[in-house]
Amino acid sequence: MSGELRDNRGRGDAEWGLPPIHPEGRKYGIIAVAIALVVLLIFDWELLGWPLLALSAGVFAFFRDPERVVPQGDRLLVSPADGLVSLIALVPPPAEMQHATEDGGPGLGTEPVMRISIFMSVFDVHINRSPIAGTIRRIVYMPGRFMNADLDKASEENERQHVLIQSTDGKTIGFTQIAGLVARRIVPFIKPGDIVAAGQRVGLIRFGSRVDVYLPVGTEPKVLLGQRVIAGETVLAEIGTAGLLEGVSQ
Fold first, then answer.
1. Higher pLDDT, residue 159 or 127
2. Alpha-carbon Rg of the chain, whole angstroms?
3. CA-based torsion, 189, 191, 194, 195: positive or negative
4. Each residue's pLDDT tens digit, 6-43
5. Contact indicator for 163, 105 with CB cutoff of 8 Å
6. Which terminus in the chain has less CB density within 10 A, N or C?
7. Is residue 149 pLDDT above 60, yes or no?
8. pLDDT tens, 47-78?
9. pTM of this prediction?
10. What is the rounded CA–CA span in Å between residue 201 and residue 127?
11. Mean per-residue pLDDT for 86-113?
12. H or E segment and range at residue 226
């Protein structure tokens, strides 16, 4: 049940079930099914109709919106996206995130910080979630290109949307939703001034994309390059902690 408290000592309930489809995607699935049925039943083109029907099932699956069990902790920063940790680098924050917000909230500054890039393929869940609890201080949409989101330069050249969140203890976290080769629209569920919980749904990117997370100064990742992460569940970092972590691919 959504909102139920669960812990590592067995409190709460767990059961398997088919994930619901987000309302944003239902219309696309219905359109895909309608086209497939027209091809099958009216034109009797089975060679094309059955693959289209299978494709419509894939459209519904793309917009699936499973529940997630979000770790609780003021200093924990959870993944905003499902996908592969494709890049980890020390970089200056984007210019749109550097300066103070219009309501006086702090920006990320100009000092280089750790950026974690999470690549989402068309097979991943594409609902994005807030990495921390806090207040949305800024949302900046930037038009751009639609190159492969796995490339480092996609952070500066692709269509993207920057989001600044200020946590309850005053720390500012930035993340960027980046459109990719197939993605053609970033859909926000939030606006400046909204108060969000850690792991709360904040938007989606249609059909393959990437999310960059900018950690506060003095914070380093608790995930490894090449690791798969789950939105709202995987802890990306603990604010204020740093240290080398190593992993072995096997």
1. 127
2. 19
3. positive
4. 988 999 988 888 899 998 888 888 999 999 999 988 88
5. no
6. C
7. no
8. 888 999 998 998 899 899 999 999 999 899 99
9. 0.88
10. 7
11. 88
12. none
Q: Are 215 and 116 in contact (CB under 8 A)?
A: yes
Instruction: Dig out the tokens for 217 from the structure.
Output: 């100064």
For residue 124, give the DSSP letter: S
Q: Per-residue pLDDT tens for 190-203? A: 999 999 999 999 99
Q: Does domain 76-238 fall into CATH 2.70.70?
A: yes
Mean pLDDT of 128-151: 83
Rounded to whole angstroms, the Cα distance separating 67 from 232 reads 9
Q: What are phi and psi of 53, to 5 degrees?
A: -65, -40
CB atoms under 10 Å from CB of 195, counted, come to 12
What letter represents residue 168's amino acid?
Answer: T
Residue 201's contacts (CB-CB under 8 Å, 6 or more residues apart) are: 65, 127, 128, 129, 189
Q: State both tokens at 213.
A: 């997370």
Pairwise CA distance, residues 21 & 61, whole Å: 7
Structural tokens at position 202: 């904040």
CA 104/CA 114 separation, integer angstroms: 24
Which ranges of 136-245 does DSSP label H, i.e. alpha helix?
Answer: 154-157
pLDDT at 154: 61
Strand order in the sheet with 186-188: 127-129, 201-205, 186-188
Which residues are tagged catalytic? 209
DSSP H stretches of helix in the chain: 23-37, 46-62, 95-98, 154-157
